[in-house]
Amino acid sequence: MQIEVYKMTADSENLTITLEAVCDSFSSLLWDIEYYQCGSFEVYIAANPQNIAIFQTERIVGRDDDNEHFGIIESVKIETDAENGDYLTVTGRFLMCLLERRIIYPTCFFTKQTSYSDIIRSVISQNALRSDNRRIPGLSLGTVSGICWDKTATLQVSYENLMEWVYTICEKIGGTANIRLEKSSGEKYKMVLDLSEGINRSIEQDENPHIIFSDAYSNLLSFSYAEDCSIQRNFAYILGKGDGEERKRTVYFDGDEPSFLERYEVYADAKDMADEQQENGETKPIPEEEYLELLKERGKEKIVLPLTASESQIAVQSMQFQYNTDYFVGDYVTVEHQRFGLIQPKIQLIGMIESFDQNGRNLTPTFKGA
After folding, report:
1. Dist CA 191 CA 344 (whole Å)
2. Which of 225, 264, 333, 343 is most buried by its number of CB atoms within 10 A?
């Protein structure tokens, strides 16, 4: 595996990327792929004039064995040590962090039921693809895969950070977003934003081969488990425009209304949610029924499920399953620890830290209850 470093030059329309260097003599590399947030990387390499010239902020870092994830160098730190030598610590995040440079402005309205894929693509188009100074050069919309993106909603959003909002939607419906590089011609590249969904490979289905991490199979090297119900919120009161008792209001809950000790209430302030919208150059009120649906969507954002999470270290050289071949970040798998009598029949792999150093390659996954 080699690290590739690219120089990126952008104008209003094109993204020109040139390969500056290929490195295979680094001391360590952390490659952290996340499903519901922007992933990151860290390169630890000897500090010398050549490496200092290569690893510069705003350059792109990739791997020759990964054509889906590319990072932007955001920080370079030089440390000198008479005993241990001089080193560079190069850190950054994957290309999705470019969306963090934009907020959602002006307000985006979806008063009719619209698929989440169309909602996200529309908001990104309005805030990052328009032909003005807000455009992110070279960015385009790519593929959509996964049934979670067919779910529909009505919503209204404004002034949110674009990247954070996208990942909020992803976590709500179970999908993810990623920006990859795709060569168009010569040294011209485009950045392509794809929406996708993990695959169920747990024992609760029979369409795909089962992926099971277990101490019984010797592919679960370490294991931690946590469950927390204190953060749960399952019933939302949402108040929108108006004053005092005149404020428009509704409630939101999923399924049967929770009651007694099973009811965990939360308040959602939606006074910022406009009850008017521009239509053909005219300001028109949003119908009451549609506005209440918008309020319910705001309440849905406040619903919090009990937390079930586990972190483990799994065997890299497992003969049963190979990472990025048999399973990927975002997939649902099964994790069990027979010695403790614990089994999580369907749990999602939401992050994987791949580390390389003098001791070899390690995999540290993070799981989240489905």
Report:
1. 37
2. 333
